[in-house]
Amino acid sequence: MEYTYTLDTVNQAAKKLLRDLNIEQSVFNRSIIICFEAEMGSGKTTLIKELCKVLKSKDEISSPTFSLVNEYKCPFGDVFHYDLYRINQTEELLDLGMEDYIDKIGVHFIEWPQVAKPLLTDFKTVTINFVDFNSRTFNIY
């Protein structure tokens, strides 16, 4: 189901997304993988920052463009935020130890997941699309 939001309503969008993905604010007891697919500048990082806030992280949430992965602490467990934009091949992820990260218990938000998908077995995909300059939609697959 498509959900439309703006920057002013991104908090409500994050709450809805977590509900729709069945990610509750309870102790994370497994690896939950969410892949984000969207055009450059569509707001993937902005939405993920808001998701972390809703999950009550007190950490400074930033884009992991250069570190590839940032780890945030939440009362319910760890959140891992990946930005794989600069990765071109799945083998690069293997060399970086991606499989070890993905197996960690917690919620994993992956931007630009195309090269990682061959390593993933159980995940959901969130697509973000432009409606206009201020509005976006997301869908879950």
From TrEMBL:
<keyword id="KW-0479">Metal-binding</keyword>
<dbReference type="InterPro" id="IPR003442">
    <property type="entry name" value="T6A_TsaE"/>
</dbReference>
<keyword id="KW-0067">ATP-binding</keyword>
<dbReference type="Pfam" id="PF02367">
    <property type="entry name" value="TsaE"/>
</dbReference>
<protein>
    <recommendedName>
        <fullName>tRNA threonylcarbamoyladenosine biosynthesis protein TsaE</fullName>
    </recommendedName>
</protein>
<keyword id="KW-0547">Nucleotide-binding</keyword>
<dbReference type="GO" id="GO:0046872">
    <property type="term" value="F:metal ion binding"/>
</dbReference>
<dbReference type="InterPro" id="IPR027417">
    <property type="entry name" value="P-loop_NTPase"/>
</dbReference>
<keyword id="KW-0963">Cytoplasm</keyword>
<keyword id="KW-0460">Magnesium</keyword>
<dbReference type="GO" id="GO:0002949">
    <property type="term" value="P:tRNA threonylcarbamoyladenosine modification"/>
</dbReference>
<dbReference type="GO" id="GO:0005737">
    <property type="term" value="C:cytoplasm"/>
</dbReference>
<keyword id="KW-0819">tRNA processing</keyword>
<comment type="similarity">
    <text>Belongs to the TsaE family.</text>
</comment>
<dbReference type="GO" id="GO:0005524">
    <property type="term" value="F:ATP binding"/>
</dbReference>
